[in-house]
Amino acid sequence: MCRFFAQPLNIIDYFFAFMAAIDFACKRVPIEEIIKCSFALNKTDYLVFKTLMSAKVEIPIQDIQDSIGKDRTTIQRSIKNLLSKELIHRRQINLDSGGYMFYYCVKKKEEIKKQIYTNFENWQGKVLHELNNW
Length: 134
Hints:
Structural class: alpha+beta
Number of helices: 6
Strand content: 15-25%
Radius of gyration: 18 Å
Shape: elongated
Order of helices and strands: HEEHHHHEEH
Distance between the termini: 17 Å
Number of domains: 1
CATH superfamily: Winged helix-like DNA-binding domain superfamily/Winged helix DNA-binding domain
Oligomer: single chain
Strand order of the largest sheet: 1-2
Largest sheet: 2 strands, antiparallel
Number of strands: 4
């Protein structure tokens, strides 16, 4: 069986580093679209994900809101979606004055890349199956 990527993690590293695109037959596919498609993310989900990817530390929703200019409810919906897909982590900080705040960060990049690669392999298997049945 032919493999699409000879060295999957190395090529994916390249795409993440340069936000490149893949030329596939008649269409150029940006890495943003591969990530969005791989995890069924909408535009806002991806913006939140990208903001968290670029953050060097855990950040609260307010920082995400300031960065992408969406309302808090929309961001919370995207956060919930990203958490359900296990792309991000949430940590609760209890405040001295009572109450708490949540801080968010992205999972390790290597784990996300492995998920994308697994999703890609599943898709590749389906394509090969369909071609064999054609």
